[in-house]
Specification:
GO molecular function, one term: nucleic acid binding
Structural class: alpha/beta
Number of helices: 12
Strand content: 5-15%
CATH class of the largest domain: Alpha Beta
Oligomer: single chain
Pfam families: LZ_Tnp_IS481, rve_3
Protein name: IS481 family transposase
Organism: Mycolicibacterium parafortuitum (Mycobacterium parafortuitum)
Amino acid sequence: MSHRNAPLSETGRLRLARCVVEDGWTLRRAAERFHVAVTTAQRWANRYRELGPTGMADRSSRPHRSPHRTPTRTERRIIKVRVTRRWGPARIGYLLGIHPSTVHRVLARYGVARLRWLDRSTGQVVRRIETASVGELVHVDVKKVGKVPDGGGWRMQGRSIGNRNSQSSRQPGQHRNRRLVRGYHFLHTAIDGHSRLAYSELLTDERKETAAAFWNRANAWFAERGIIVRKVLTDNGSCYRSHAFRDALGNIEHRRTRPYRPQTNGKVERFHRTLADEWAYARLYTSDAERCDEYSRWLHHYNYHRGHTALGGQPPAARVPNLSGQYS
């Protein structure tokens, strides 16, 4: 197979062969003219005599026979263990006494789906929910994020320092070893399934009134950007099964995930994982207020500047037609 530095393409090979076969050039003269070895010139000339112009194409480098290939019976055992137990190459290799790299090659050869593409309970390939336009489906969910004590918490400074920071704020009369509960922020998020454009707020709880009010603000935010929401997907949390949230949706169709299937709402789950890695626990915050102030800036960066792998490296705003502030 030709590579970027190959002196001969298919057209060059054909020209070389015709110079030798049809024009009567010597092999040495043709090799010097096309900057290749004499043996190379001879090979293409012979192939032209045998097959004509079609013989100038690349041939597969796969050997005609592979005497050391894994036996078919062993390959079937590997596939059977993968399908029935849904194990990875390492565990299958330990069970069958085969090197994990061999197991991996067998699985790849037969096109067996990766474990991360499968539903663990059923073994079926997880189908991705793809929408054709913005607003067709908006994913909504809540994530709890622990507050940061003054001076920083244990995640960045270590457990001993984090514990001391929490205990230093205890009230007089409290037990010395009793940790003060700092509380949580409830991160309410609505993300458009087509563009991944996200609206998110740090709120104090996940009650039905809070969820309903959040959706009203989120829907207005999407409408300001020309996105008309037609369907909303949530889990089966009590706040989303309430009459208050139903009334807030109005004519918008409400869909719920199957119980114990968070992957159905995977786009917003993945967003929460991203913000945990890139905002919540990305660096040392000395106070909770500092981290909260940083969230709005990070969210703007996510929507307008951060490349998204599912969007071909483009930010979510790139998929929203005529969105103002897209290049801010």
